Amino acid sequence: VLASGFGLQRTQQRIAGEEHWNEYLRLRFPKQESQLEGDSLTAAEQKTKQRQVHRQRMLALGRTITADPSHARAHLRLAAHYITRVEDQRLSGRNPHMPLAQIRQAAVTSSFESAAERDEWLSRPGVLGHNRRLLDKALAHARHALSLCPLQGMGYVYLAQLGYLDGDDSTASGHLLDQALTVRPFEARIHEAVGIEAWLAGNLEMGLDHWKQAFGLDRSVQRRILKRLAASGLPAKVIIDEFQPDWESLVFMKDLYQQAVPENEYKVVLAGYAEAARGRADNQNGTDAVTSWLQAAKAYRNLDQSNQAQACFENALEENPASLAARLAFGHWLHSQNRFTEALEHLVWAARQQPDDEKLQRLVKQCRRSAASDGTTRTR
């Protein structure tokens, strides 16, 4: 009877816990409409919205483990959310340019005479301050998650990242990361974390090896790795050669490098992007091929490679002579090259398709005048 009663109680706990867990999953994976609404917000509004959703997720996880204390995944996710919350709060704190990994490294390599001295240093406002309490909670939830389910690889990663709070050294962290790889050898986030640890320790080759293993497994992890590599100053050509990014990755790299790196590095990425776009176009038909040819042409235009750009524009029109996008793009490019007579053919064709486009009509008139003037000059 006691066994039956306990079994019934556990079943009720699981049912109650799953209700709140499903609420968390709905918040974590919102519907497409909700994501589109977020696109219309300003950067500040998006940040406020993200923090609000983060709090809602944490509340849902808290309700999950209150209803079902044995919900291993909820404990692990709550640990992750506490870490994320601290990282976010530190960005507006006293020392925003010192990430948690550097604080941990400093704590591990420092020769504190006692646990009390270590705790005093960690609790300083410029180090962890009040965030120490949140990280202690993250550590406790990660430990509890592993006690409930030892096969959760990220649990070992969190213990490796937070164990310094209780005095663990780099050797202990290394063993925990090895355990994470043992239980989840194909999880991208674990290879990402192990790569970061190797990178911080100065073992760049090992770090790159783990990041390469993670690169093709998870798109979000892949993008975080690309951001780290760009920030590290590793040459773009080395990144492309070592990681062999696919088309979507090259698009991300192009946008990333356009924002914040030296122009010569951006041009390396842009050249790789242009080459990949041509390769895609060769294996496509119709509208898809036209789009790829135009993407390549735009890249070559930005690289000041006129012959390559023209060839791509011409290939786009060969694929579909009735493509308005191709006619407009080629016409605008020819106009920018002062090849007015050639540009006129394509711009006039496009203007007939869009008679209400006043800006295009004005461009056609200007192009006619320039072509006539150019012809007169040549006659003289």
Describe the model.
By secondary structure, the chain is mainly α. Among the domains are: 1-26 and 48-96 and 115-165, Tetratricopeptide repeat domain (Serine Threonine Protein Phosphatase 5, Tetratricopeptide repeat, Alpha Horseshoe); 322-380, no CATH class. It has helices at residues 2-28, 32-39, 43-67, 72-90, 100-109, 115-122, 131-148, 153-162, 170-183, 188-200, 204-215, 219-232, 236-243, 247-260, 263-282, 286-302, 306-319, 324-336, 340-353, 358-379. The mean pLDDT is 90.
Q: Mind telling me the C-alpha Rg?
A: 28 Å
The end-to-end span amounts to 110 Å
Mean pLDDT: 90
Number of helices: 20
Quaternary state, please?
single chain
CATH class of the domain at 1-26 and 48-96 and 115-165: Mainly Alpha
List the secondary-structure elements in sequence, H or E.
HHHHHHHHHHHHHHHHHHHH
The CATH homology group name of the domain at 1-26 and 48-96 and 115-165: Tetratricopeptide repeat domain
Strand content: under 5%
Q: Fraction of residues in helices?
A: over 70%
CATH T-level fold name of the domain at 1-26 and 48-96 and 115-165:
Serine Threonine Protein Phosphatase 5, Tetratricopeptide repeat
Shape: elongated
- Low-confidence sequence ranges: none
For the largest beta-sheet, the strand count, sense and barrel status come to: none
Name the structural class.
Answer: mainly alpha
